[in-house]
Amino acid sequence: MNFSKKSPWILHYDGSSCNGCDIEVLACLTPLYDVERFGVINTGNPKHADILLITGSINEQNKSVVKQLYEQMANPKVVVAVGICAATGGIFSECYNVLGGVDRIIPVDVYVPGCAARPEAIIDGVVKALGILEERQKFARKKA
Amino acid sequence: MGKETVIPFGPQHPVLPEPIHLDLVLEDETVVEAIPSIGYIHRGLEKLVEKKDFQQYTYVAERICGICSFMHGMGYCMSVESIMGVQIPERAEFLRTIWAELSRLHSHMLWLGLLADALGFESLFMHSWRLREQILDIFEETTSGRVIFSVCDIGGVRKDIDSETLKKINSILDGFEQEVSEITKVFLNDSSVILRTQGLGVLSQQAAFDLGAVGPMARASGIDIDMRKSGYAAYGRLKMEPILETAGDCYARTSVRIKEVFQSLDLIRQCIALIPEGEIKVKVMGNPKGEYFTRLEQPRGEVLYYVKANGTKFLDRVRVRTPTFANIPALLETLKGCQLADVPVLILTIDPCISCTER
């Protein structure tokens, strides 16, 4: 079995989602799926986080919040867009206050599809993000 | 008297699954005023009726909120059905009631978990969410969705539950009830939970009435208001009494929600015993014309649906007044005079659903 070199800490932010994906993100952390046993912790502090999980799309009010959270996170960092709203705006893409997916504001590395995204899919997305995170760490070490 | 300090709370905060921003004006450690600013999740769903026709809008209505998703779809469908004069089959009414009560169960379990998390009681949080998964399994088996089901449709429901599955639901709920009564004992009797909740954020009956509180928030202050008593869907044929408390503090609100968990279990059992055989959907022809108000009881309180149709495929107006929106004035009232450290518990105590509120 391969061990990841790092226990990734997650920062979850609800862009403008309907809550469906948010409760599924929380469901990942609770006993049925329980990703905490792999060292994944949901933190509230952007400075502690390695992976930014964003649910929901970007609107006029939250775009500065999302950008600020991303900038506050320490390098290396990975962004996972959870759910179809975070990817493209989904069913809400035609709404007047929805600008579109999260990638309009910050670079997104992994897109998790679904409405609402299933916990299995979210965990899969985080595992993919882990690979990217490791590569970025190697790159950062080489540079240093 | 100390100097006034303003502390921004949110939009991104560990205790909040959803973004809401409050400016807390403090004198030393005491909150003297809370000024909310919302709009972080505003999408503009009500205006979307111009782009999606009235059949498609069912899906949008379901996505107003992911927690009480089914009841939003149901409220919208009930409004359109009333405008069009469609009488849905009795079996569909019962199926809707079953799913609605299961939604209430999962929402209350979710809230109990979040409350425990806000109190710092991690294991209780995990237990509540573990039990909630049993309800989600029922959803997945009957509707094939965990949070958003898309089973409610104008004219009835899309999926039937056969009698085998209904029996199975009954036995799952029996086990669930046993386990739930164990953890709710902790919520009601554990000394640390009592110390954190009793006497905190008292909302008097008069204040709750004046500020227009709804749902468990109002019932914990002794206001007898439960839309299920109006008898929509199959509720008219079930026996139920609103659950009331008089203290109006956080403990009373917790107690109301816990008793509602058992009430929901009872209602689902009544439904399973009474459900008639028959069709689950009637065919809906033509376009709606007219207007209608629907009031129904969500886990968080009364939701109000207003639909205005003009005889074309596209509706003129859909207006939703959600329970959290009605409870925010009451929340601001209870925040006054509390300690800064109690703010997270007080915010959670109204069971905020910001996604509903801002749409």
UniProtKB/TrEMBL annotation, chain A:
InterPro entries listed in its UniProt record: Complex_I_20kDa-like, NADH_UbQ_OxRdtase-like_20kDa
Domain NADH:ubiquinone oxidoreductase-like 20kDa subunit residues, every copy: 18-128
Cofactor(s) needed for function:
[4Fe-4S] cluster
Query: Which key words tag this protein in UniProt?
Result: 4Fe-4S, Iron, Iron-sulfur, Metal-binding, Oxidoreductase
UniProt keyword Oxidoreductase, yes or no: yes
**Listed EC numbers:** 1.6.5.11
Please indicate if the UniProt record lists rRNA processing as a keyword: no
Note the Pfam families from the entry.
Oxidored_q6
The terms under GO molecular function for this entry are: 4 iron, 4 sulfur cluster binding; metal ion binding; oxidoreductase activity
Against PANTHER family, the record matches this protein to: FORMATE HYDROGENLYASE SUBUNIT 7-RELATED, HYDROGENASE-4 COMPONENT I
Q: Which family does it belong to?
A: Belongs to the complex I 20 kDa subunit family.
Annotated protein name in UniProt: NADH-quinone oxidoreductase subunit NuoB
Q: What is the lineage of its organism?
A: Bacteria, Bacillati, Bacillota, Clostridia, Eubacteriales
Automatic annotation (TrEMBL), chain B:
Cofactor(s) needed, names only, are:
Fe cation; Ni(2+)
User: Among its keywords, does the record have Membrane?
Assistant: no
PROSITE patterns membership: COMPLEX1_49K (PS00535), NI_HGENASE_L_1 (PS00507)
Q: Which residues form the NADH-quinone oxidoreductase subunit D domain?
A: 119-283, 286-359
Q: Check the record and name the SUPFAM superfamilies matching this protein.
A: HydB/Nqo4-like (SSF56762)
Keywords (alphabetical) are: Iron, Magnesium, Metal-binding, NAD, Nickel, Oxidoreductase, Translocase, Transport
The UniProt annotation places Mg(2+) binding at E46, V320
Q: Which domain of life is it from?
A: Bacteria
Q: Where does Fe cation bind?
A: C68, C356
Molecular function per GO: ferredoxin hydrogenase activity; NAD binding; nickel cation binding; oxidoreductase activity, acting on NAD(P)H; quinone binding
**Pfam families assigned:** Complex1_49kDa, NiFeSe_Hases
Sites where the protein binds Ni(2+): C65, C68, C353
Family per similarity comment: Belongs to the complex I 49 kDa subunit family.
Tell me the protein's name: NADH-quinone oxidoreductase subunit D
List the lineage, top down: Bacteria, Bacillati, Bacillota, Clostridia, Eubacteriales
